[in-house]
Amino acid sequence: MSGEPRAAAAPAVDRPVVSLATVLKEWGRIGCVGFGGPPVHIALLRKLCVEDRKWLDPQEFEDAIAACNLLPGPASTQLAIFCAWRVRGRVGALVGGAAFIVPGLIVILGLAVLFLGDPPVWVKAAGAGAGAAVAAVAVQAGVSLMPAGWQRAPQQSNRWRWVLYLLLGTVAAATIGPWLVLLLVACGIAEAIAQRVPPPARRGAARGLPMLAAAGLGGGVLLSVAWVAIKVGALSYGGGFVIIPLMRADAVDNYHWMTGEQFLNAVALGQITPGPVVQTVAVVGYAAAGIGGGLLASAVAFSPSFAFVLLGAHRFDRLRDNRAVRAFLDGAGPAAIGAILGSAIPLALTLTQVWQYCVLAGAAVLMLALRRGPVLTLLTAAAAGVVIVLAGGALPH
């Protein structure tokens, strides 16, 4: 049938039966060693599922990447869940997705206890150093996404509108905080209108957001944690660093769960731990309500990814080819890239010591000029912070 995915046309007998134990082992291994974010996760999943085990053919895997990139939320997590669904069905998707997420969640909550409690001086210094480099990591993340988006812009949209959405996203991330998602939705709707593709579902989503916000703001700490997490998991087009301004405005400015310096530490922890960057939300939840808040935030943030795959994986080919969805992403996509770039501004303004700006400058050279990865850069910045503070430099206030 036309609604089935291309790869699904192959008879089921052509594919080996994969045990849940194998899914748990292999996806858990990737969850433990997946340092470096989505590019590393995608490479590891491709090696496992396409090259080594040949559970998926290359075209199906590439189509799955494209479909996951059209969805809001963490694309590499959705890809991991999809691959597990493809080899073992819905139960496999649940087991594989959990195995991919849980190792990083355990590590990041353990580090949150260390960094957000009353740590020794050297731990504070390491956090101050790594936190100083986060703005550079955000800039590099945004810059790395720009070439592909710029090349796609003339296909249906145009480059003038693409630049406009990029600039709007940059300004919004630096100024309007928790309402950034409305700007992303507005850019998507504007582009759909410009391409003459009406997106009624998006209009309904945009109308519902303020009501959800009001519910989240008025229902206690755990409900507030859930509201922040659902924005991260279901409404953050572009994934990764686009969630930073969404979380910072709530965690630091609105609810006061964390200081600006603690939030920088949380972002750094999300980068240097294995698994998806979205795990940062678990640190925010921990700051708000302890271990229970961290677990709740993670569960809520990742539940949309499971829902998208469990309910819609068999329609991923339709999603990719849907003109309305494509037009919406032509507007929301560049705005999300702009939001990633713009998130660097409030992150940099959080710094309070001169030496932190020096570390930030060094991190920018490492990432943008020397093209080093975020894990190496953040660890180097953490080491620099320890050396500077132990040599007499002041800790941030």
TrEMBL record:
It comes from the Bacteria. It holds the Pfam family Chromate_transp. The chain crosses the membrane at residues 94-116, 128-150, 162-190, 283-313, 325-348, 375-395. It is found in: Cell membrane. Signal peptide: none annotated. The keyword Transmembrane helix applies. Its main location: membrane. It is a multi-pass membrane protein. Keywords: Cell membrane, Membrane, Transmembrane, Transmembrane helix. PANTHER family: CHROMATE TRANSPORT PROTEIN-RELATED, CHROMATE TRANSPORTER. Belongs to the chromate ion transporter (CHR) (TC 2.A.51) family. This is Chromate transporter.
